[in-house]
Amino acid sequence: MATSHSSNTGTISLALVNDYDVVLAGVAQMLDDYRERVAVIELDANEPVSNPVDIVLYDNFAQAESDEAELDVLTTHPMARRVVIYTWNLHDELVEAALSRGASGYLSKRLTAPDLVKAIEAIHTGETIVSDGAQRSRSAGDLNWPGRREGLTDREAEILALITQGRSNADIAQLTFLSPNTIKTYIRSAYRKIGVTSRTQAVLWGVEHGLMPDHRRIEHWRPR
Hints:
By secondary structure, the chain is an alpha/beta fold. Helices cover about 40% and strands about 15% of the residues. The radius of gyration is 17 Å and the shape is globular.
């Protein structure tokens, strides 16, 4: 872990960045019992960022985990003091790329709420925190994602969301660092759960069940 200067020890302001309202609501609810230590900042979908934020937590559900351009937007923004990736995938290549582009942490979604808060506090004081484990793991129980009520696992929902966005299997494999065969396995399982047999049916189901992004929140952070 790399250590730099310590900063304010008061309540940490935390901005959540993801395109799905249900994903952000799940993280916010998970952190609600710790609001005296971490204050989640809700960003209006139509307003640019106007005040400094201690930590930007970039949840990459159904987004390109290796998207360096979007990460650059966040890490170079003057209102973002530190940027942290919040993810299921902890591949060394992804971690190294994110840290080299200015991220201050790479945190797993398997972390419990207390552990997530501790990690955020450590990052706030200047530490660089990377969760252990090279493989994707099950999400913490309090998190949420579109399609969960219908029985989809977090990864099935993410892949269906990417399909709903128009991504091909090859695109999804590249974006998620999974093999094409693994993608096909997730797709078969997801189709069976939601009762569809074709990609067209899956897209229609996804649109009807919240698997299209609600907003493009990264636009808040782009230079105006």
